[in-house]
Amino acid sequence: MNMPNEKVMTLSGGGIDDVVPSSTAAKQTFKLISSMYATTGVIYILAKAVFRVVPIALEPWQGGIALSSTQIGAYIATCLFFAYAEGYKGFQLKFTPLVVSRALTLNASSPIHHLLFAPAYAMGLFHATRKRMTVSWGVTLGVGGIVAAVKRLSYPYRNIIDAGVVVGLTWGAASIFIQYINAVISGLKSSVDPALPKKK
Questions:
Q1: How far is CA 168 from the centre of its chain?
Q2: Which CA distances in Å does 67 have to 42, 55, 61, 76, 165?
Q3: What's the CA angle centered on 49, arms 89 and 96, to 5 degrees?
Q4: CB–CB of 163/75 below 8 Å?
Q5: Cα gap 66→71, rounded to integer Å
Q6: Looking at the DSSP assignment, which residues form a beta bridge with residue 15?
Q7: pTM to 2 decimals?
Q8: How many Cβ atoms are within 10 Å of 147's Cβ, its own excluded?
Q9: Is 99 a residue whose pLDDT tops 90?
Q10: How far apart are CA 119 and CA 42, in angstroms?
Q11: DSSP label at residue 156
C-alpha cells in the first residue's frame, strides 16, 4: 500500500519524479542535495587542480633556487593578475553565477544523466545554449592546452605562472562556495540566466 502524498517508486520519463515524495519539503530537499552535488563537484575539480600545482608554485620558497628581485616581482604581479583576471572577473562575475544558477535548476524532474553528471551540467558542458556550450568547451580545452604548454617552461617561469593559477582557482572555488551558500540562504533561488536550451 502506498503512503499518502507519495508516488510509486518507479523510474519514468528519464527523471526520478516518481521516486521522490510529492511533498514540497521533499522536493526542496532533493533540489538541495542535487544542487549541492553539482557545486561541490565543480569545487572538487578546481581544488584537485590547485593541490596538484601548489608544490610547484611553492618550490622557490621551499629550498628551490632563490628568485631574483625581478622574479619575485613577477611572482607577485602574476598572482595579482590571476586574482583579478581569473578569480574575480572570470569566476566570481561570470562562471560562478552560471554554475550556481544551473545547479539550482536540478530537481526530481531532471533527466537521470543530468543528475549523475551534475558538475559537468552545472559547468554548461551539455544541455545548454549553443553559445554557452561553445564557451564552456572552449575554456575547458583552452585551459588544458595552456596547462600542457606551461609544463614545458623551465624554472622559475613555470613556478611563477602556477602560483597565479593557484590564486585564481582558489578564488574561483571560494566564490562558488560562497555564492551557493547565499543561494541556499535565499531559498535555493538565483536571478542569473542558466543558459538552458529553448524547449522545442
A1: 13
A2: 34, 16, 9, 12, 19
A3: 30
A4: yes
A5: 9
A6: 12
A7: 0.86
A8: 15
A9: yes
A10: 5
A11: T
